[in-house]
Amino acid sequence: MSGTVRPEPGFSPERLAFFTDAIFAIAMTLLAVELDRPDEQELASARALGSFLVDQRDSYLAFALAFILLWSVWRRHHKLMDRIDRLSNAFTGWHAPFLLLVAFLPFPTAVIGASATNPMADTLFAGTMAAMVCCEAVIREISARTGLTTGDPAEARHQADGSWAVGLWFILSGVAAWLIPYAFVLWFFAPLASPYGGALISRLRTPHRDPHDVNAPRP
Amino acid sequence: MSGTVRPEPGFSPERLAFFTDAIFAIAMTLLAVELDRPDEQELASARALGSFLVDQRDSYLAFALAFILLWSVWRRHHKLMDRIDRLSNAFTGWHAPFLLLVAFLPFPTAVIGASATNPMADTLFAGTMAAMVCCEAVIREISARTGLTTGDPAEARHQADGSWAVGLWFILSGVAAWLIPYAFVLWFFAPLASPYGGALISRLRTPHRDPHDVNAPRP
Amino acid sequence: MSGTVRPEPGFSPERLAFFTDAIFAIAMTLLAVELDRPDEQELASARALGSFLVDQRDSYLAFALAFILLWSVWRRHHKLMDRIDRLSNAFTGWHAPFLLLVAFLPFPTAVIGASATNPMADTLFAGTMAAMVCCEAVIREISARTGLTTGDPAEARHQADGSWAVGLWFILSGVAAWLIPYAFVLWFFAPLASPYGGALISRLRTPHRDPHDVNAPRP
Amino acid sequence: MSGTVRPEPGFSPERLAFFTDAIFAIAMTLLAVELDRPDEQELASARALGSFLVDQRDSYLAFALAFILLWSVWRRHHKLMDRIDRLSNAFTGWHAPFLLLVAFLPFPTAVIGASATNPMADTLFAGTMAAMVCCEAVIREISARTGLTTGDPAEARHQADGSWAVGLWFILSGVAAWLIPYAFVLWFFAPLASPYGGALISRLRTPHRDPHDVNAPRP
Description:
Oligomer: homotetramer
Low-confidence stretches of chain A: 1-5, 210-219
Catalytic activity (chains A, B, C, D): K(+)(in) = K(+)(out)
Number of helices of chain A: 9
Mean pLDDT of chain A: 84
Subcellular location (chains A, B, C, D): Membrane
Largest interface: A-B, 35 and 38 residues
Radius of gyration of chain A: 20 Å
Protein name (chains A, B, C, D): TMEM175 family protein
Helix content of chain A: 55-70%
Order of helices and strands of chain A: HHHHHHHHH
Largest sheet of chain A: none
Number of strands of chain A: 0
Structural class of chain A: mainly alpha
Membrane topology (chains A, B, C, D): Multi-pass membrane protein
Strand content of chain A: under 5%
Distance between the termini of chain A: 40 Å
Shape of chain A: globular
Keywords (chains A, B, C, D): Ion channel, Ion transport, Membrane, Potassium, Potassium channel, Potassium transport, Transmembrane, Transmembrane helix, Transport
């Protein structure tokens, strides 16, 4: 029966999901536009072009890193939206800063690609990712608390904890960048922070919740 | 019953909504491409990169401003299209200048980002936004007058008044830019002009309408 | 009954329509990326920026021209696809050169924007548009001859004649560019070639068709 | 009956198909952004612009090549997804490197456009295409082995063989580029490697399969 109810104008989940997809797809494809093109001299011989490509390896690594991170955030959003039947103003409104940070990411990616050992560059990238993932966490908290999801609210809350864990991982690694070089390589493992760190955070937050809410997997 | 009628060729609202979404998403993501990338010298140290980022703060502010404004216009269009069952030539035709101005916006955004205190730059941006929002108002007027909306026509007309109010806000602020610096910061509040200014305009236009049409909220 | 038949794999019209929309939307939005950004000196004062904008007027005109032309081609494609129930290999295959030319258009647009009085630039633009519209005409002919459309095949054939007329208009104007300057302004009227020129071409092709096919409007 | 079952969250094929379409459409349209724009001197006369366009012919060829190759990969993906009813983690996960390579392609395209006779440039392009098509082959193998397709698994496996053949073609041509110049022109024929080479590979792999699986066409 609820399937036939038309959502209120402006609150059809499909169009928000579509819009989010488009922003992600464009941001991910624009990442490759940032890569430096070789000039005439660097194209003069196979050897010269080879040296150019080796010199630019950090750029390619940064491109792959940002692509994989955005992919994993997109996948989590895909899973979230498949559980949402209707939108609320808060749920939709928090997509504005979330998508703004997605659209912004090519800029920090270009910066770390050009100077991966500069801790300020690493902080800029980690800060953008941390803010993006925290927006994701807020969106999940809203969906869990206001009953927008079709499934178990406890599960939705646990998913939010996973997002907070990823955000925390980026904040910590942004600090670590001032102590160790090439900290950005660690970010390839950020998607793993979600299941393990999320379980930890769920456990810490248990006192504030009903005891039957916590069904976190044991890592 | 009306749900099973296939719209005339070229007048399926879904494809126009989709096309509009795509133009908005691309324009919003391209905004970040406009941001200046640091050169080698500015990447040499954490301090140099920090100074560069602080120097470029107007660009980041302009990026965020244009992103939020396009988001709010997109949200209003989302709400409008969810009430539309079929298209007309006039309704569709006015989307051409509307979307042209959306696609154009990254250019004035780059200009105000590079020179926020230049009143000509502010006028260019405010003029583009004013023209875009006035196209939106015309689209709403058409939907209200020709019975394309499924809901209350008076409500649709009131929405159009909100759009006119936002357009007026941009025209006034474009003029204000010649008198005060940093007028563009005021534009962050433009979405608020819609409910408050719209109610005012609705009241002013009342004599030309049936008295039962006006159900404007009291600000 | 036919509505429940799943089309053969790879021949669902929706996904081709969607893909076409995406290419059009991106090409149209990228047009604005081509516009020259003012440098520091041109941003120094309101007067300097004003002179820059006036100097660049051809670029803005070329942007608006290409946007409106792509919009009108997109609208015609929208109307075509709303009549298509299934795809064929030929119908789909001709979308490859068609969309290639759509994606290519920002390049000739940038060239005429920078040098509108250069007849070679005009020829490049007119040639690209002529080839694109001729691909459109071939796609329409295929849909009419192989019975892919749901409506009257004669109507579909007449639509194809309209496309051929627009293509011819661009070829003629590409030649005219060597004789008169600013020929490109005439292209704003190209969408009008479709109803009037199409009727003419339909009349010329009548002997090769059944007499009851011709239901062209009298211009 | 199975048609009414809602897929598990995050495993709705439509949204993955849509996302893939968006990445392809953007990458294909961005190819044209790579083309060098003529400078003021090259725009001074019709003759100067003509020489510029002739000089840049390799860029236009590379643009057309990459566009057609991506189009043919997209068409094959379109046909694949129309046979998929549900997703699996492996099937979805292999889309990440696949789409990463699609998004990356404008870079090698720009490089071969600027220096088509440099064997390192050819190797970079052929390597990117080979890796992309091998990801496609893996995706097809997964769909055939884990029963995600609605049709005959043997047919799906045969399709995968076609993809492996195209990948092999690119690896061989990447090697050939060190022996003969302009090897990249051969890549226009890569889509043909799928039916012919695929039949060959299917025959070679027959001993490892049930005899009734092989229904490869005779080339």
